[in-house]
Amino acid sequence: MYWNHRVIRTVDSETLEITLQIAEVYYNSDTGKPYAYGEPFLGGETLEELTETLNRMQAARLQPVLAYPDDFDLTDRDEDEDEVETGE
Q1: Domain total of the chain
Q2: Which end of the chain is more exposed for a tag (fewer CB within 10 A), N or C?
Q3: How far apart are CA 41 and CA 79, in angstroms?
Q4: Residue 51 is part of which domain span?
Q5: In this structure, is residue 39 part of a structural domain?
Q6: 0.70 surpassed by pTM
């Protein structure tokens, strides 16, 4: 068995919505064919959207590391931030 990261296209059986995701794909060592994949690491609707997110993630490596909760102001939240992960 070996694995790598690959883009996988899935189709929701109820809504027929197509999603692209990057996940770990596991291969059969004898045949070289994929047999399973892990939880999506990253998802989007188009390759361009995935590329944009990957570029943002690459840029994050160049920024200082944030420490939670020390570097966060947990008292000042906007209304539209309710969906954002707060670590709590």
Answers
A1: 1
A2: C
A3: 28
A4: 2-62
A5: yes
A6: no
